[in-house]
Amino acid sequence: MFPGMDKRAMEAAMRKLGVQQQNIDAEEVIIRLRGGRELVFRSPSVAKVSMMGQETFQLSGECSEREPLRQQLQFNDDDVKTVASQASCSDSEAKAALARVNGDLAAAILLLGEKKEE
User: Fold this and answer.
1) CA geometry: angle at 33 spanning 31 and 97, to 5°?
2) Is residue 59 domain-shared with residue 81, that is, in the same domain?
3) Which of 11, 57, 83, 99 is the most buried (most CB within 10 A)?
4) Which of 36, 42, 29 is nearest to 68 (CA)?
């Protein structure tokens, strides 16, 4: 950090200023950017620095950029059956509604109920 200053002197100066540093054992760090892209740091070096009530993180390592991984829909056959029975519709309609509302059972039932009213 400061040229010519050995490690012990640096640690003593940091203690005197109330600066605390903690290394974090991270496997991967992902930063999601506006616009949907992601920065991925594999095997990063991460340090948490606390100073005057503020916490900051220092991150270093090799970075790559990627498109975000699409979240898989989290619903199963029981969810499909529940929506189909509550909304009085077919399993395929229930699956489509669950996919549209990202697996939210109540929202899928309401969506199918609205379609029938139309």
Assistant:
1) 100
2) no
3) 83
4) 36
pTM: 0.48
Phi, psi of 67 (to 5 degrees): -75, 150
SS3 9: helix
Residue 72 belongs to some domain of the structure:
no
Check pLDDT > 90 for residue 82. Answer: yes
Does residue 108 contact residue 101 with C-beta atoms inside 8 Å? yes
**Domain housing 113:** 77-117
Residue 18, pLDDT score = 85
For the CA atoms of 41, 47, 49, 55, what is the dihedral angle to 10 degrees? 40
Q: How far is CA 4 from CA 1, 9, 51, in A?
A: 9, 10, 23
